[in-house]
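Input/output pair, single chain:
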Amino acid sequence: MGPGRISGGHFNPAVTIAFWVTRKLNTFDSLGYCIAQLAGAVAAAYTLRLVIPEDVWRAVALGTPDLATGISRPPGMLIEALLTFFLVLVVFATTTSGRSGTAENTTIYAGVAVALTVTAGVLFAAPFTGAAMDPARAFGPALAARQWTNHAVYWVGPLGGGVVAAWIYDFLFLRTVRQTADV
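Output:
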């Protein structure tokens, strides 16, 4: 049994909040998932800090994402919001429509679709923002490396983009599915 059957496979607070704002996840579970996501990111970052020599991890701040020279916070937030918008749109399209094949096939296709979306996002935006698309991904290394420069970019952008994608998908696509089911 994969993690999707237990927790929905939530690894990203932006995805979890998107499910919460569209009432697909209750408040208690959403808070629990977000706490677990942040704790996991912190544990991973501190593990790297212990395993990797200090002069190596300090040079890259444990992989804490940051903006490229010449990219200010507003464009950085917009880039992160767009990346996460598409990520959440794909997550919703592959996991919430109710029109896909069997549960096993849906899980496989969802994983592949999400992985390809993350890959495309990283290829496009890594040089500009680090392409975090995930507040926990930015938080863990930032805490362990004590590197908070431009950190709000990695919360405001992904959470905003994820919420907008969830509302749009819920309103445009799931509403259409519900209407055709009523006919």
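The two ends are 35 Å apart (CA to CA). The chain has a mean pLDDT of 89.
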